[in-house]
Amino acid sequence: MSPRAFLINGLIAGLIAGLFAFGAAYFIGEPHIDTAIALEEGGSHSHGDDHSHGDGRAHAEEAAPAEEEEGGISRDRQSTFGLATGTVVIGLALGGIVGVAAAFALGRLGRLRPAASTALIAGVGFVAFALAAWVKYPPNPPAVGSGDTIGARTAAYFGFQGLSVLLAVAAVVLAARLASRGDGWLATAVPVVGWAVLITAAGLALPAADPVPAEFPAEPLWGFRLSSLVTQAVLWGVLALVLSGLVHRTARAEEARRSLAAGVRA
Known about the structure:
With 266 residues, the chain is mainly α. The chain has one domain (3-145, 216-265). It contains 7 helices and no strands. The relative contact order is 0.17. This is CbtA family protein. Residues 41-76 are annotated as: Disordered. The chain crosses the membrane at residues 7-28, 81-106, 118-135, 155-178, 185-209, 229-248.
């Protein structure tokens, strides 16, 4: 299979994964964001303001017209069109990257077939890119975190995420070399343990996440964090499933064409 075929399949799979991720984010994550916005709105008013104790979605809907009048983006647009655009763009980007990475890994991971090696690359991507960063720097909903530290927090997050991906690439390369020598068990254990040890050490060395205010309720906080992880899992899971399926179909079609060509020449 050519890298171009992997890239096209990756973009198709990424588009589908982005749409599924939008559904997960909208139905699972958005209610927790509305609750957090309601808490933030309630905290910005005096305790005598009766509107500070209403439903989260009601507060978000009340704030939307004012934002739109001031030239901003309404909450409804953020949670629908804006969210869908974001998940689709991320899905396309990840699909293209995973597709190219799978093309590079093809034939270098022992005897794995194209679909299996593609699924393995997607699984490594989820752990290294999404899960590790979520554990070290779990996402926070609105009203949590200081605006003064957003730059430092963003830099630390992406720095840790980039390091995790680089270590994962090194682990895959090491696994491929060990597998080429016939060390099947070592080809799995050594890279996995090595990545886990190094990324844990990096996580301990980097700054900790900002503490969550004690007065912020635990239920919406962890509801938001878990919904974020579920959305990531849906994105990567659908990407792995669809891309490996497309790769399998393409590989079978190319094998059939080669067999037909060989039969014609014979």
